[in-house]
Amino acid sequence: MAVRACGLIIYRRLQPAPSSKVTDSIEYLLLQTSYGTHHWTPPKGHVDPGEDDLQTAFRETQEEAGLQASQLTLIEGYKKELHYPVRGKPKTVVYWLAEMKDCNTEIKLSEEHQAFQWLKLEDACRFAEYEDMQATLKEVHQFLCSRE
Question: Does the keyword Hydrolase apply (predicted)?
Fold first, then answer.
């Protein structure tokens, strides 16, 4: 059976400069793991027994980034499932999209992560070395741009 994990792709909007497009002011939150290859990823984690996927996404975000559900706005209409092998076993990760209500809210990392960054799309794609995560970030950005 596939390992199942869930998380949130979190973004914030900075005050855009008068001449810039609104979408230029979007930054994505990535966390750097404190184990393995120290890869960068949105907050996510394994589903606990009795938990539904969205509960898992919010719990993991609270544990890994210190963000409460009340500090985020879940964006309707976006949900993404990624499928890939981890150590030879299939893994499914389900992501939802959430916006920070206050772009200055402090991030509080757990011991699972050693760093975090707010990154514009291009930099976020560079940090997220896995192609499916890069594609997901680009897809999210297109989704947000289409809603402007």
Answer: yes
Name, in order, each residue with C-beta under 8 angstroms of 34's C-beta and a sequence gap of 6 or more: 111, 112, 113, 114
* Dihedral angle computed from the Cα positions of residues 37, 7, 51 and 83, in that order, rounded to the nearest 10 degrees: -70
What number does CATH give the domain 3-14+23-146? 3.90.79.10
Question: Who contacts 58 (Cβ-Cβ below 8 Å, separation ≥6)?
Answer: 8, 69, 72
Predicted TM-score (pTM) of the model is 0.93
66 near 59, Cβ under 8 Å? no
Q: Where are the alpha helices (DSSP H) in 2-130?
A: 53-65, 121-127
pLDDT tens across the length of the chain (148 residues): 778 999 999 999 987 666 566 557 899 999 999 988 899 999 999 999 999 999 999 999 999 999 999 999 999 999 999 999 888 999 999 999 999 999 999 999 999 999 999 999 999 999 998 999 999 999 999 999 888 7
Residue 107 · residue 64 · CB < 8 Å: no
